[in-house]
Design goal:
With about 130 residues, the chain is mostly helical. It is elongated. It contains 5 helices and 2 strands; from the N terminus they run H-H-H-H-H-E-E.
């Protein structure tokens, strides 16, 4: 029993480390959280591991990663539609508005409205990037 608790705590510690030291610098948000307005995969992973233990938690988290990959594909479609509708490639900066698309407080005004922020928040360097390596 104690070894299982130790592994559970180690997994939670690893997720905490990811959230504190890697996630803030990766340049994109969890695709699942962006599309569905739910918790990020790392927050979800911590919760299911705490609640169900490491073995079941990892199975549930794997299912979530698959759903996150599907969400990343949805965001890619949105970004492609934005690019087609606005005549610009969606990048980290939005042409005339000059605001970082990842900053939800800016919508790029009259350029494309909130569609620009929604489509671009996970778009970087020509590829959509989700929390699952998409």
């Amino acid at each position: 029993m104690k070894i299982q608790l130790l592994f559970r705590q180690m997994a939670i510690w690893a997720i905490n480390g990811y959230q504190c030291y890697l996630s803030p610098y990766k340049g994109f948000r969890c695709a699942y959280a962006q599309v569905y307005g739910d918790r990020s995969c790392s927050v979800y992973g911590k919760a299911v591991i705490q609640q169900y233990g490491l073995r079941t938690g990892i199975k549930l988290l794997n299912n979530r990663f698959q759903a996150c990959h599907e969400a990343m594909l949805i965001l890619k479609i949105k970004a492609d539609q934005y690019s087609d509708n606005c005549g610009e490639t969606c990048g980290r900066k939005m042409g005339s508005c000059g605001h970082d698309c990842g900053d939800a407080s800016h919508s790029c005004g009259s350029h494309c409205g909130s569609q620009a922020t929604d489509a671009c928040i996970n778009f970087s360097g020509g590829f959509i990037q989700g929390c699952c390596g998409g």
